[in-house]
Specification:
The chain is α+β, with helices and mostly antiparallel strands. The protein has one domain (6-170): 3-Layer(aba) Sandwich (Aminopeptidase). It is built from five helices and six strands. The chain has helices spanning 6-9, 53-60, 66-77, 133-147, 162-170; strands at residues 11-12, 41-44, 83-89, 95-104, 116-124, 153-154. Strands 1-2-3-4-5-6 form a six-stranded mixed β-sheet. The longest helix has 15 residues, at 133-147. The termini are far apart.
């Protein structure tokens, strides 16, 4: 949903490694390689053809068809004031991590303010986990959120996803509450 812009696709400098997350495929499968990349960079997505973006989304949300991913990606790019996505590339230009963040104006569990930046998804290929990639990606999301006027970054994880809980804690998130959702079909 975001239109391409030179500002949105400019690589962000990477501070000293201190960040991480999850996936299950080899680095060679992480998506197309960029040519000419000399140093590891984080790049904000500006086009659905962003190298590695679709491949990393497919690893994070494998139940979703590529066509559905591409439709969502286009929708996100069309609303740059509401959505941002960042891909981390290693020094060889291979996509090794992804973070997607959105501005939520509805109620966000555990948040004290509105609007709130919400970490919609984060994924790091297995070989790059526990090396600071997730921390760098979350920092990029935080910078974007601050630039959008948000003072909180919220997230969620399934109750049984204890590795995600640990990652969130390591990244400085504080658990605020646990919720069980219910539904009923009216008759």
């Amino acid at each position: 949903m975001r239109s391409p812009s030179s500002e949105g696709s400019a690589p962000l400098p990477i501070p000293p490694a201190r960040w991480h997350t999850s996936c299950n495929r080899s680095a060679d499968d992480a998506g197309p390689r960029s040519t000419g990349v000399q140093a590891a960079v984080i790049q904000q997505c500006s086009d659905v053809s962003q190298p590695g973006w679709l491949a990393l989304r497919q690893q994070l949300w494998p139940h979703c068809a590529a066509k559905e991913h591409l439709a969502e990606m286009s929708a996100f790019l069309a609303e740059p004031a509401r959505f941002a996505q960042f891909v981390k590339y290693d020094g060889s230009g291979v996509a090794v991590g992804l973070v997607e963040v959105a501005i939520r104006t509805d109620y966000v569990n555990g948040a004290d303010t509105s609007p709130v930046a919400f970490l919609e998804g984060i994924y790091v290929v297995p070989r790059a986990r526990r090396s600071g990639v997730a921390r760098e990606l979350v920092a990029a999301a935080e910078r974007w959120a601050l630039g959008m006027g948000c003072t909180e970054l919220a997230s969620d994880a399934a109750i049984e996803n204890t590795s995600s809980h640990a990652m969130h804690a390591a990244l400085g998130f504080v658990e605020t509450e646990r919720v069980v959702f219910f539904r009923k079909v009216p008759r």
